[in-house]
Structures are given as C-alpha cells and as structure tokens.
Amino acid sequence: MSVLVFGKTGQVATELQRHPGVLALGRDAADLSDAQACAAAIRAHRPRAVINAAAYTAVDRAESDEAHALRVNAGAPAAMARECAALGLPFVTISTDYVFDGAGTDPFAPDAPTGPLGAYGRSKLAGEEAVRAAGGAQAILRTSWVFSAHGANFVKTMLRLSETRDSLTVVADQIGGPTPARAIAGACLTIAAHLGRDPGASGTYHFAGTPDVSWADFAREIFARAGRATTVTPIPTADYPTPARRPANSRLDCRTTEAVFGIARPDWRQALTQTLTELDIPT
Ligand SMILES: NC(=O)C1=CN([C@@H]2O[C@H](COP(=O)(O)OP(=O)(O)OC[C@H]3O[C@@H](n4cnc5c(N)ncnc54)[C@H](OP(=O)(O)O)[C@@H]3O)[C@@H](O)[C@H]2O)C=CC1
Ligand SMILES: Cc1cn([C@H]2C[C@H](O)[C@@H](COP(=O)(O)OP(=O)(O)O[C@H]3O[C@@H](C)C(=O)[C@@H](O)[C@H]3O)O2)c(=O)[nH]c1=O
Domain RmlD-like substrate binding: where (predicted)? Predict the structure, then answer.
C-alpha cells in the first residue's frame, strides 16, 4: 500500500480505489468526527502519501448541523495535515467552490478572496485554513459540481426525477463547472506524487470540468444524452428556495493547476456519456 485515502463510499474515494496501491478507510476505520483517530490511522499505516476524500457534503443539512460539519470538514483535515507534516508525507485534501461568495462573472483564482454563503462552505474554508497552518507538503484542491455513477449527485438526481416527471424547474443563474469524480481522483494522485518530489509546489489549486454551464443547461444535457423526454424550465434561484444559499458564480480559474501539474480541465460532456454508460443508460 502506498497511498492512504480517507473516505471509501464517496464519489471521489470510489474512483481513487480503481488505482493500484490505494488503501481507503471508511467511517468504520476512521470517523472524521474523531480527529485524533484520523491522525492515529496515518501513524499506523505509514503510507507514501495521504488523500482526504471524505467530507460532510450535505449542503442544506449543514445549516442546522454546523458544529458537526466543522468537526468533519475542519477538525479532521487539520489533524491529518499536522500528522503528515510531522511524518514528512505529502497531503492532498479536496475543497469546494462554495468557499466563494459567487459575486461577479469572472472565474475565481485560487488566491481570490473567499466569503462562503453557508455553513458547508464555512466548514470547508475553516478546513483549508487549518490545513494551510499545519505546513508540510500539501495541496488544497478546490473543485465543483462533482458527478459520477456512484453516490449522490445532480446527474443521478435528475435521472431519478425524470422517471416520474414530464417537466422540471431548474435554476439557471448559478454557473459552474461539472467535474467528473474520476478526473478528480486522477488529479489527486498526480498532485500527491508531484508533492513527494517537489514540496515547493504546495498550495491551493482549482480543478473543474469544462465548459462552465448553468444547472438548468446541465440538466438539459443530461436528459438529451440519456434520451429522457423531461423538459427543463429555467428559473431564478429565488424561485427555488433552499436552506443554504449557493453561489451564483462557481467558475474556477484552473490555469495554475495545468501550469504546475500538467492537469487540464476535463470535458464534462464526455464524462457524462461515460457515466450514463456505467449506469446502463444507452446514449
Ligand atoms: N459532491 C460535490 O459536488 C463536491 C464535493 N467537493 C468535495 O470533494 C470531496 C469528495 O466529495 P464526494 O466524493 O462528492 O463526497 P460524497 O458526498 O460522495 O461522499 C462523502 C464521503 O465522506 C464520508 N464521510 C462523511 N462523514 C464522515 C465521517 N464522519 N467519517 C468518515 N467518513 C465520512 C462518507 O462516508 P459515509 O458513506 O460513511 O457517509 C463518504 O464516503 C469532499 O471534500 C467534498 O467536500 C467539492 C466540490 C463539489
Ligand atoms: C433537484 C433540483 C435542484 N435544483 C437546484 C438546487 C441547487 O441550486 C442546484 C444543485 O442542487 P444540488 O442540491 O444537487 O447541489 P449541491 O448539493 O448544492 O451541490 C454542491 O455540493 C457540494 C458538496 C459542493 O461542494 C458544490 O460544488 C456543489 O456540487 O440545483 C433545481 O433548481 N431544481 C431541482 O429539481
């Protein structure tokens, strides 16, 4: 075993486990509510690198469960990062577009000011800050709108709803890059290996699928490729009230990730076709 992954059942963790030399720890082996248990797992396994692919990702639930989200999304990665720094291991943790306030229309650069609109984003931002403070060879990889054939995501929600609905209303004023979990897994492994050779590359990076799109247009593309007759009516965010506010602009500027690690933005349209095939949906 050479790379230790926190998370076993999640979208990115599932894709990471397709790679040889990856050992994934589920909640039973390391509960992220217990930061010291996470540090102890790293000490016990002594891997070549550590990737944190587990998180509290229930955006709306986090609004009424912020202390728990904070423990999982900040306390645990902080302890992992400190342990990795002490042992000289590269550490990669994944963060989110929801650390930004979504103002404007320009893509957010990795050093752009943050300003989360909700509890999930605040907990992820606290995680970023604590990981950075731990030092060592580390990367915080922010991504957005993750999808895959496994776990819960917007693609699977839309496909499920299309089985019973002729039409759906979907927000058209939130724009971002849908990102295949498989590509994120590959990026994490590439970055971890790079940090092992070049700790000076440590920092905060962005990685999102291309092209940027609204949730409404993403839904339309899902239905078109899957041959579903469900129609999509575009609506403003105000007409789809949710407990958590979400950023209107989730565009991420991914240029430094390509420049430093040679990792280009994946085209989500190709990955969507592949995901539908994996779900046994002809395209
Ligand atoms: N999903 C998305 O759209 C986006 C995700 N991200 C980030 O990417 C990363 C990976 O996300 P993704 O693969 O979608 O995650 P998922 O929501 O698919 O899965 C979350 C994973 O975290 C695990 N987990 C949650 N709480 C705990 C806990 N207390 N102890 C141990 N494990 C726990 C879950 O385990 P269990 O099955 O046991 O609950 C599951 O394996 C996360 O850091 C997330 O914040 C960033 C941007 C967008
Ligand atoms: C189901 C549905 C959702 N929507 C809207 C609500 C929301 O604004 C948008 C996406 O809804 P979801 O709840 O699937 O997405 P959400 O859980 O907010 O997704 C986020 O997850 C976290 C973990 C991240 O880090 C983010 O990058 C992002 O991917 O679509 C509709 O407009 N119509 C619908 O029928």
Answer: 1-279
Q: What is the pLDDT of residues 110-150, one digit of tens each?
A: 999 999 999 999 999 999 999 999 999 999 999 999 999 99
All domains of the chain, ordered by start, with CATH? 3-146+180-209+250-266 (3.40.50.720)
Strand, coil or helix: what is 205?
Answer: strand
> SS3 string of 49-60?
EEEECCCCCCCC
> Which atom of ligand 2 has the smallest separation from the CA of 57?
23
Q: State the DSSP code for 73.
A: I
Q: Tokens 């991914």 identify what position?
A: 254
Cβ(5)–Cβ(45) below 8 Å: no
Q: State in Å: Cα 75 to ligand 2 middle.
A: 25
Report ipTM (2 d.p.): 0.98
Q: What is the DSSP letter of 18?
A: T
Q: Please name which of 220, 207, 206, 208 lies closest in space to residue 155, comparing C-alpha atoms.
A: 220
Ligand number with the minimum distance to the CA of 62: 2
Question: What is the pLDDT confidence band of residue 283, given thresholds at 50, 70 and 90?
Answer: confident
